[in-house]
Design brief:
The chain is α+β, with helices and mostly antiparallel strands. The chain contains five helices and seven strands. Strands 1-2-3-4-5-7-6 form a seven-stranded mixed beta sheet, sandwiched between helices. Helix 1 packs antiparallel against helix 2.
């Protein structure tokens, strides 16, 4: 019998979280995206947080929520404006344990509370399946350049109040 894990908690972003969130960002990309992105692409993507102060400004500019386990950050997500998920990252040690689901559930509720009728996300190829199961539908493919590396993602959209596609696990 496995031990039951403590339930994650959630709270707003605090500036003191920045070093831990930078580490989560880098570990998530390095350890979870290797099937979809090359090592050079991963390194370029991780470089987006090398300037910690600038990364902190990006987190503070949005509504950023932190998922914690035993008071330690294990993931984060941010809502830009009222209707765009800008970031969603979880530490590899908790991937698949409901942390991302909890964060996106909260962002969807907050977006609805802000009057949004739909929510968009530019999902990495790694995250696309996660969002599809939640009822997000691909709208367009995108390419972004970071440090001379091309990275692809997909803009996905969900109408708020809509159920996930039938047959998808709840």
């Amino acid at each position: 019998m496995g031990q039951s894990l403590p339930k994650p908690a959630m709270r707003p972003f605090l500036p003191a979280d920045l070093p831990m969130l930078t580490a989560i960002f880098a570990a998530s990309i390095a350890e979870l995206t290797g099937d979809d992105y090359s090592e050079a692409q991963q390194e370029a993507w991780i470089s987006a947080a090398e300037d910690e102060a600038e990364f902190g400004k990006r987190l503070a500019a949005d509504l950023t929520l932190i998922a914690t386990l035993q008071n330690s950050p294990v993931g984060f997500a941010s809502l830009r404006g009222k209707d765009h998920i800008r970031m969603l990252y979880v530490h590899p040690s908790v991937a698949g344990q409901g942390v991302a689901t909890m964060l996106v559930d909260a962002l969807e509720k907050l977006a609805g509370g802000r009057g949004a009728t739909s929510l968009t996300v530019d999902a990495s190829d790694t995250a696309q399946g996660f969002f599809a199961k939640r009822g997000y539908v691909a709208q367009q493919r995108n390419s972004v350049t970071i440090n001379d590396e091309w990275l692809a993602n997909t803009t996905m959209k969900k109408t708020l109040g809509a159920s996930p596609a039938s047959g998808a696990p709840q």
